[in-house]
Amino acid sequence: MSHSNISLDELEPGPIRHAELSPDLVARIKNLHLALDEVYPSSLADWLDDFRRDLHPEQEVVWWERLAQCYITYRDRQDLNAKQRQAAFKILLNINLGVHPASLSADATILPEGALRDLQKSLRDHGL
């Protein structure tokens, strides 16, 4: 069977599954948006729209909150420039999406010594 490659710009978002999100969930999503804007720039409207498309938005918000906490914990312990903050977040996100840490070494090279190990420990500490 032949598989064709699909580019990311050909992907279409799934259907809106939740017309409304609870006020509590919206507040938590706003906090995520603010916390990650420097490394995951997306409009608040896009964040909300994406969560309305999730089958289980509450579980997804919890996942993002844990990821954000990992990132913030690491960032606050280091003196990182903007490029390094981007790399740290990219590593955390990709490991969580199933990318093998060894394939992230290019991003890790711009981070302080031991960063990959520290980021992986942070993920384990936060239940990810």
Give an account of the 3D structure.
The chain has 128 residues and is mostly helical. The chain has one domain (18-125). Helices cover 59% and strands 0% of the residues. It has 6 helices and no strands. The protein has helices at residues 23-36, 44-53, 57-77, 82-96, 105-108, 115-125. Helix 1 packs parallel to helix 3 (57-77), helix 3 crosses helix 4 (82-96) and helix 3 crosses helix 6. The protein starts with 22 loop residues before the first helix and ends with a helix. The model has no long low-confidence stretch (mean pLDDT 88).
What characteristic shape results from the CA principal axes?
elongated
Specify Rg, calculated over alpha carbons.
Answer: 16 Å
Largest sheet: none
Please count the helical segments.
6
Strand content: under 5%
Average pLDDT level: 88
Which ranges are low-confidence, i.e. pLDDT below 50, for 5 or more consecutive residues? none
Our count of domains comes out at: 1
Which structural class do the helices and strands define?
mainly alpha
How many distinct beta strands? 0
Helix coverage percent of residues? 55-70%
One letter per element, helices H and strands E, the order comes to: HHHHHH
The separation of the N and C termini measures 35 Å
